[in-house]
Design brief:
Elements: E1 20-29, E2 32-42, E3 47-51, H1 58-66, E4 73-78, E5 81-83, H2 88-93, E6 96-99, H3 111-115, H4 130-144, H5 160-173, E7 178-182, H6 190-205, E8 209-213, H7 217-223, E9 226-231, E10 234-240, H8 246-255, H9 264-272
Parallel strand pairs: 3-8, 3-9, 6-7, 7-8
Antiparallel strand pairs: 1-2, 1-4, 4-5, 9-10
Helix pairs in contact: 4-5, 5-6, 8-9
């Protein structure tokens, strides 16, 4: 019996499965379609910038993923599996957490109390285990920001970058794998913005996927691997950051046109606007 010759055909490349997919998502409020058939995805360790003008639908789209507003139609898939996210608790159970612009921190409490807020650790006697909560908080925040030392201070007295670290620590300590970050550097100065950028890059290194919702085009270009642009509820397109210019992305945001449809005159005007 002849032995078959070894195949010279290469094995097909391993197909990467997105951490999260939103497929053909539709959301309406009354007669207004706020999100109209949008499809985007996110891979582990990737930052996808989600941008668009006011009313573009990006916040509503992310609310479907966070469980705050389930879609009217379409499908959400997590690790390739169809998933129903009826409320924020269901999102958290799937490892999807949201870091809101307000951060939702209890200002009068310190970092450990905020990280474990609503999920406090208790001793065998039923008392709060403050030492265990502080120890766990130190581990996770030090991983994000080795210079963070203010574990006993009410978070009201922390800098904006430190407050972001506490909010992120709360999410990833409870095994978040995908983060929605809403305007994470809004109202921060340059030094605090740099702190937040470092936090996001550390999350990437740990394999956490991030949807970055931002109006700051410079933040988006500094941090994103891909950029998804929405315009009046629709997806204009998703582009690789290295393949586009700032002017082309501004054209997607302002004019609702993909880069291939922008005219030289339109690009010149966008360039002249200063970005």
């Amino acid at each position: 019996m002849l032995t078959p010759a070894p195949s010279t055909t290469p094995d097909p490349p391993t197909q990467r499965i997105p951490l999260v997919e939103l497929r053909n998502i539709q959301v309406s409020f009354g007669g207004v379609r706020a999100v109209d058939g949008v499809t985007i995805d996110l891979y582990p360790g990737e930052v996808v910038g989600l941008v668009g003008g006011n009313g573009a639908g990006k916040t509503t789209l992310m609310r479907t993923l966070s469980g705050a507003r389930p879609p009217d139609s379409g499908q959400i898939r997590v690790d390739g599996q169809p998933s129903t996210i009826a409320d924020p608790r269901a999102a958290k159970a799937l490892g999807i957490e949201t870091i809101y612009q307000t951060l939702a921190l209890a200002d009068n409490l310190d970092a450990p109390a905020n990280v474990f807020l609503g999920r406090e650790l208790t001793s065998a006697a039923g008392a709060l285990d403050d030492a265990a909560m502080e120890s766990a908080t130190r581990k996770v925040i030090t991983r994000l920001n080795p210079n963070f030392k203010s574990f006993k201070m009410p978070v009201l007295r922390l800098s904006g970058g430190q407050r972001q670290a506490v909010a992120i620590a709360r999410a990833i300590h409870f095994n978040a794998r995908a983060l929605i970050m809403d305007e994470p550097t809004a109202a921060l100065g340059p030094a605090e913005t740099a702190q937040v950028h470092n936090l996001i890059r550390q999350l990437q290194r740990e394999g956490i996927g991030i949807f970055l919702v931002s109006h700051d085009i410079h933040d988006v270009f500094d941090l994103s691997d891909r950029i998804s642009v929405m315009y009046h509820g629709r997806l204009v397109g998703t582009v690789n950051k290295q393949d586009v210019t700032t002017e082309e992305v501004l054209g997607m945001i302002i004019l609702g046109k993909p880069p291939t449809k922008l005219t030289p005159q339109e690009l010149a005007e966008l360039r002249g606007s200063g970005g």
